[in-house]
Amino acid sequence: MSTAPLLQLKQLSVAFGGTEVVHGLDLCMQPGERLALVGESGSGKSVTALSILRLLESAQLSGQVLWQGQDLLQATPAEMQRIRGDEIAMIFQEPMTALNPLMTVGQQISEVLQLKKWLPGPQADQRAVALLADTGIDDPQRRFHAYPHQLSGGQRQRAMMAMALASEPKLLLADEPTTALDASLRLQMLNLLSVLQEKTGMAVLLITHDLVLVRHFASRVAVMEKGHLVEQGDLHAVFSRPQHPYTQKLLDSRPSRDGLRETDAATQTAPVVQASDLCVRYPMPVPGWRGWWAKSHFTALHGADFVIPGGTTLGVMGESGSGKSSLAQAVLGLIPFEGKVTFDGQAWQGQPRKDKALRQRVQVVFQDPFGSLSPRMTVGEIVSEGLRLHQPHLTESDIEQRVRATLAEVGLSSEDFPQLLNRYPHAFSGGQRQRIALARALVVEPALLVLDEPTSALDVTVQKQILKLLQALQRSRGIAYLLITHDVDVLRAMAHQVMVLQGGHVVESGPALDVLTRPQHSYTRHLLDAFPDL
Fold this sequence. Notes:
The chain is α/β, with parallel strands linked by helices. It has 3 domains: 148 residues, Rossmann fold (3-Layer(aba) Sandwich), CATH 3.40.50; 74 residues, no CATH class; 266 residues, 3-Layer(aba) Sandwich (Rossmann fold). It contains 22 helices and 20 strands. The chain is globular.
């Protein structure tokens, strides 16, 4: 390996409106190296990567970004246009927003080849199909003509990877490239990236907060906190002997089973929810003239049976398309289903007026707290909405008292947050917004909470805080949880029982520790292999 650095950041600082967010960063990458830049949201990882390519128009940059000896901060716009994509390529976090929805993925890859490699149209199209094949996408010829919305998350990320590799870059900036993917898909994509990196010899800067992926992929690690580079070094040295307190905190942020009594499941006998032979089917159009008379359907969930006693958690795991979300929506009474779901003997009637009382007993917390909270409502309005609907007899004073007490229970008090009830969601961090979403669900005192990937959008340290809060609330309130997740670490920390779904079928179920430590089904073992121990 050449001793001359491929990329060297010297005292790189980034400021917005005079406020510095990256402070004097020194970082070096060698040709063909795999470096992971680790830190939580707001640490400056993505800003650093975007600054390398000078994609932050409003940012004030100082220091040096030396690319093969050339300072990119002094390069002309024409020089930067040549370097972007041609010598340094980038994969973004969410492929659905990074890809053009009005062009097929093949057209988008072919466009790069025509602009950067000067290939004629037919030759560029042929090369684009070959690149899709290199990324392992199934039926690349057909996927070439597909639009982004017609591909799965994993397929879109493969298309993004093919586009980034089209110009054969020397450096690939991968900004959280697997966050939107299932656990097993994450490792598949990382394995693919490893193969392609070895094949092409390019260097890869992986930007992530997922320490499992870092251990699986990188050879060297750099840790950022609040815009400062606090530690860097060999992967094994940093992970086994972290020197900085922030690095130690990150490595200690894996969810734990602290305080979760294994006897809870056995001592609780009264079931909050029971489901038997639960099936979910979606209508499908029949092509041709037969569609005028014939009907078809797709079965997303086949005959699931489960019981959730009070004070316990049923964890449901599986990849995208396994039926997890269909199961959750059926339990919530949001979609038609076959079979039986009862809550203390009550069942969904399919009529809003008749189901109103049951809606109070069954609440949900969604994956993305920012998307699930109305930006036009204050915290007080958001949390009190359920009370006003289900308990209209309460006075304004009673409602405010209940709202404040519930917010304090989830760790948001007026003493710490002045004018708390009058603030809007955008004024809070991701973890704080998820606490608001929890308060909204808890304020009506439900018996069952459906938790749909409640921590996947959060940083690792915030994730651990939210899981500890959920554990404490379950102990104090005796709530039952239906936990939908693909994160095995979250299941290990939270679940009393685990049910594994594959293609809509329950392939394995039982006590959490039995399923997660002694899996019987090959698919369960496949999912668990995606979460190696740190």
